Amino acid sequence: MKKSGLIGLIGLIGLISPLSLFGQGQTGNLGQFDRRLLHYGIQVGYTQSKFDLHYSEDAELRQTLQGTTSYYAPGFHIAVVGDMRVGSWINLRLLPGVTLVTREISYSWEVDYLAAHHLLERSRNVESVYGDIPLELKFRSVRYGNFRPYVTAGASYGFDFASLRKNRNETNQSIIRLQSSDLRYTMGVGFDVFLHYVKFAIELKMNFGLLDLKVPDPDIYIRTYDDLRTRTFMLSFTFEG
To answer: Does 3-240 carry CATH code 1.10.10.60?
Structure first.
């Protein structure tokens, strides 16, 4: 996450928290909301995604390439929220949605090799459109007026609708193809703000891919790494009623 975005988030938390804590000692808004068995909502979010990759051990490649790195790139997320109360402090959440992600791969070619092959690209963007089905546990703290912190943990299955895994490369342009299915584990932290009519939440969450998404290919852009797993940071805003 960029430094400016983190500073902005801290400022937003600092602005909202005193307003929420002002309600201590009072009944507060939506006093019975968290005692309901089921409630629903919508979630929108901003994402930053990259690949966790391992530089190839191929000796021939290492003579032409100094290294391969992946950098965070922005994306967007939207989901519906189904929340079920399973205990005094625990909720089970299902958040099916769609996430549009971009990941950048940067290539550091050897100077001599780059001079001999001046058309080589220094970076590639890999785009995906994931249909996600996350299942999470939400652990709630004590409510302070109109404010309640929480943490989450869970797992998510994603299917990449934009996957080019089955497409053959019949042009001169190389294609970085990915496996269509992905499994991830998730961890997050956030806080609920009880407004007059709805519950609003701000959440920070990390998704860590468990599967190698690389599709074997003789192309030099793909052979430069041996393992490819996704990592996504998400800042989301949820409205529940």
So the answer is: no
* 30 φψ region: left (φ > 0), alpha (ψ -120 to 50), beta (else): left
Q: Do the Cβ atoms of 128 and 101 come closer than 8 Å?
A: yes
* Percentage with pLDDT > 70 across the chain: 84
Q: How many residues does the chain have?
A: 241
Tens-digit pLDDT profile for residues 28-67: 788 888 889 999 999 999 999 999 988 777 777 777 877 7
Q: Is-contact 212 177, C-beta < 8 A?
A: no
Note the pLDDT tens digit of each residue in 1-33.
Answer: 444 544 454 444 444 444 444 444 445 788 888
Q: Which residue has the tokens 């051990």?
A: 57
Yes or no: say if 33 and 199 are a contact pair by the CB < 8 Å rule.
yes
Query: What is the rounded radius of gyration, in angstroms, for the C-alpha atoms of the chain?
Result: 22
| Burial (CB count within 10 angstroms: exposed 0-12, middle 13-18, buried 19+), residue 232 | buried
Amino acid at 241: G
